[in-house]
Amino acid sequence: MDVRCRRGFDAAHVNRGLRKRRGQCTVGTDVYTYHQQILDELAAHGLVPLAGTPPQQLRDAVRELYKYEIRRLRARLIAGHILKKDYAGHVVSLRKRYWLLSVPTELWTAKP
Fold first, then answer.
1. Which domain holds residue 18?
2. Is residue 78 part of a domain?
3. Cα distances (angstroms) measured from residue 8 to each of 11, 64, 70, 96
4. Statement: the pTM of the whole predicted model exceeds 0.85
5. Whole-angstrom Cα distance, residue 51 to residue 21?
6. d(CA 56, CA 61)
7. Residues 7-59: pLDDT tens digits?
8. Residue range 60-65: average pLDDT?
9. Torsion angles phi and psi, residue 25, rounded to 5
10. Measured on CA atoms in the order 47, 60, 7, 94, is the torsion positive or negative?
11. Looking at beta carbons, which pairs linking 18-27 to residues 24 or more positions away fall under 8 Å?
12. Is residue 108 part of a domain?
């Protein structure tokens, strides 16, 4: 399976020209029809499913982005750019931006 993308992930590709085909992805004989809200949220993180992109790969890519952001936030706390009393609020805000991680991948796609 040849899947390329930006940011080093094998799960998705950032290409605004693929909007017409965004809703369906194939892996061998599997066809994934993603819910529009899921597609919109993935696009907000710079991820657009390609043919052959299963939901778990996309979730892994979003998880890696979240881990990067939370590490960066912690580094800002340690560097003194964020007050300790404000840190929890920043974490909650970050979790809200990555709400997609709380949705099971089985619910990302429509049943055939």
1. 6-102
2. yes
3. 9, 10, 18, 24
4. no
5. 9
6. 9
7. 444 444 444 444 445 555 444 567 789 999 999 999 999 999 976 789 999 99
8. 98
9. -135, 150
10. positive
11. 18/48, 18/50, 21/51, 22/48, 22/49, 24/51, 25/49, 25/50, 25/51, 25/52, 25/53, 25/54, 26/51, 26/52, 27/1, 27/52, 27/53, 27/54
12. no
When computed from its CA atoms, the radius of gyration of the chain, rounded to whole angstroms, is 16
Q: Which residue has the tokens 């881990």?
A: 67
74 domain-assigned: yes
Spatial separation of the C-alpha atoms in residues 65 and 59, rounded to whole Å: 10
Query: How far is it, in rounded angstroms, from Cα 53 to Cα 25?
Result: 6
Return d(Cα 75, Cα 109) in angstroms, integer.
36
Q: 52 in a domain, yes or no?
A: yes
Strand, helix or coil at 61?
Answer: helix
Share the mean pLDDT of the chain: 82
Structural domain count, the chain: 1
Burial of 87 (0-12, 13-18, 19+ CB in 10 A): middle
